[in-house]
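Holo prediction. Input below; ligand is adenine.
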Amino acid sequence: MEFDVFTLLPEVFSPYLESSILQRARQRGLIQVRVHNIRDWATDKHHVTDDEPYGGGGGMVMKVEPVFAAVESVLGPAPACPVILLTPQGRLFTQKVAAELATHPRLALLCGRYEGVDERIREHLATDEISIGDYVLTGGELPALVLIDAVTRLLPGVLGDPDGAADDSHASGLLEYPHYTRPPEFRGWTVPEVLLSGDHARIARWRREQSLRRTLARRPDLLQTADLSEADRQFLERLRREDETPNS
Ligand code: ADE
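Structure of the complex:
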């Protein structure tokens, strides 16, 4: 999988890309990340990449020419891959969107800065717009890293455990069950007995029920679209009834 990132802050990418799982994925050739500095395509003496908004008002707007020049010189005049603008106005990034993006062999990521980007970049260059959440950051660099991270860990061979991504929170549409590791007791807080039992069927059932419990308590909205069996539905029904029963 290849990522081409277009940014005015290329230096912020290396520390994260050169750590842990992304570093290993790069070294093993599972991903390639090329970070391009948009400023290198600004042709004026001072390499200006922003300007005042037409119509007045505060803030600066990212200029159209250097962004087009950067993307077209790297990807050609008619890019074949998705060109994704990171912006708080985009569609919301979810695990499902990450899985969809992971099917492409190459992605171009455009990081906006300043107050916004010239509208012609959105209209005539970007093929997709993605937001990582309903809050505003100072630029699209962190969102681009979030996207690269979430997509990369879905690629075959990236995680040590081949099923590693399958149990994740959100992978099945539910939140993940709780995890424990040694020691079995810490400050009097013990690990649930079932996890020490060695009974794999019981453990699987407990984990599923914990996922359902957590999702019902924290993100009941996810239950509308989660992949649920008849047993799951009955368990949820029981939980809802218990919740309604007064305990005095
Ligand atoms: N740029 C600034 N805020 C952003 C967000 N929430 N998502 C994507 N890009 C952004």
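The pocket of adenine is lined by residues 86-88, 112, 131-133, 135-137, 139-140, 143 (CB under 6 Å). That is the main takeaway for now.
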